[in-house]
Design a protein that fits this description.
The protein has 325 residues and is of the alpha+beta class. The protein has 2 domains: 5-101 and 279-321, 2-Layer Sandwich (Phosphorylase Kinase, domain 1); 108-249, ATP-grasp fold, B domain (D-amino Acid Aminotransferase, Chain A, domain 1), CATH 3.30.470. It is 32% helix and 23% strand. It has helices at 5-11, 64-79, 122-127, 170-175, 181-204, 244-249, 260-270, 283-301, 313-321, and strands at 26-29, 33-37, 42-47, 50-53, 56-60, 87-92, 95-99, 102-103, 108-113, 132-133, 136-137, 147-153, 207-218, 224-227, 236-240. The strands form 4 sheets. Strands 8, 9, 12, 13, 14 and 15 form a 6-stranded antiparallel β-sheet that branches. Strands 1-2-3-7-6 form a 5-stranded antiparallel β-sheet. Strands 4-5 form a two-stranded antiparallel ribbon. A hairpin with a 4-residue loop joins β2 (33-37) and β3. The longest helix has 24 residues, at 181-204. The chain starts with a helix and ends with a helix.
Amino acid sequence: MNTSIETLRNQLSHTLEGTSFDSLGEVYHGKVRDCYMPGDGRRIIVVSDRISAFDVVLGTLPFKGQVLNQIAQYWFEISKDIAPNHMLEVPDPNVMVARDCRPLKAEFVMRSYLTGVTSTSIWKAYEGGARSFCGHALPEGMKKNQKLPAAILTPSTKAEQGDHDVSVSREELIESGAISAEDFDTAAKMVHELFAFGQKRAAERGLILVDTKYEIGVAPDGTMMLIDEIHTPDSSRYWFAEDFDARLARGEEPRSLDKEYVRRWMAETHGYRGDGPMPALTDEVRVEAAKRYIEIYELMTGRVFEPDTSSDPRARIAKNLGVSL
């Protein structure tokens, strides 16, 4: 990793917690992204340094927004022949300008392994005795982190901020009226192909793309396309391939490079899984998590991460977008 631990520590007090650019138009503040709609067919997405897990914002990590934005840019570029996406340009390390699309009212989660620490994860369901998950039959006798017989699509509802997403089957989602069968099946084909592509590319880098979440939208001309992000450490789980089998045989957790590290710290150290008082992230955890985000960027893209160490990233973003603070 080219970025030093000292650089990460120095940035702890200069993270991008959020933005407020009134001149950019209507704004929606998500868990991680601030999305501005200027009304001209574009969506200006500012990727903050906020980190979320268990459907709540836990704090900020140094350079996280820059890493996420640039990983998404990389994957959007190399996967555009598989599925069209909303990216138009990247005018700032933390900003992506995209087509403004109407999001489908579902999240498309692809899984290849029986894992997870959240109360709604496939592993927690299996551990609790379930042998069907989102309409998919699961074999008896599996253990945590074992590979599933085949990759499965496990869609979820899109919860309002502060609520939890709920995993559902294709039939339940369609029956609820959230999405039509035609739109679901078109999106399902798209995400199966993207996941297979992502797994192949990850394997070439010595990584396992374990699971990931896709968001799909519809452009004004009716084109269905990939939106939000793709194969980032926020939306995906990555394990190192080289020692996965040995660690699985010993009953050890796989070595990971994603925000699962933060989830495990919250769950195993403090017993926090999204409910009750939230423990504060320590600086040590923030630095280690940031280090993992940068490492996966460099591993996956083959590029050296070049952090912008601005003491006020909001001022830099405003300048690059031509707006005032």
